[in-house]
């Protein structure tokens, strides 16, 4: 994943939320990333590469203050709860 690719994911799919309890879990972050890739016709990087890049950016699962936003958030939520459709 190039820096531009990853920076674009962060800009389009996550936001800092001061009211969230802890932030997104590891499963939520990677799931959101795969949804973002699907929407943008990109092949997701393997989880280890994703976590390496997140770590370089100082982002860890859980206590990160991140919340989902944008079309990837909608896709992830609908895919995670198919009974809502």
| Widest beta sheet: strand line-up | 1-2
Beta strands, count = 2
Counted by DSSP, the helix tally is 4
Helix-strand category: mainly alpha
Written description of the protein model:
With 85 residues, this protein is mainly α. It has one domain. Helix content is 54%, strand content 7%. Helix 2 crosses helix 4. The longest helix is centred in the middle third of the chain and has 14 residues. The model has no long low-confidence stretch (mean pLDDT 89).
Keywords:
single chain, 85 residues, mainly alpha, globular
In short:
The chain is built from 4 helices and 2 strands, in the order H-E-H-H-E-H.
Secondary-structure topology with pairs:
Blueprint lengths: L2 H11 E3 L9 H14 L7 H10 L9 E3 L1 H11 L5
Antiparallel strand pairs: 1-2
Helix pairs in contact: 2-4
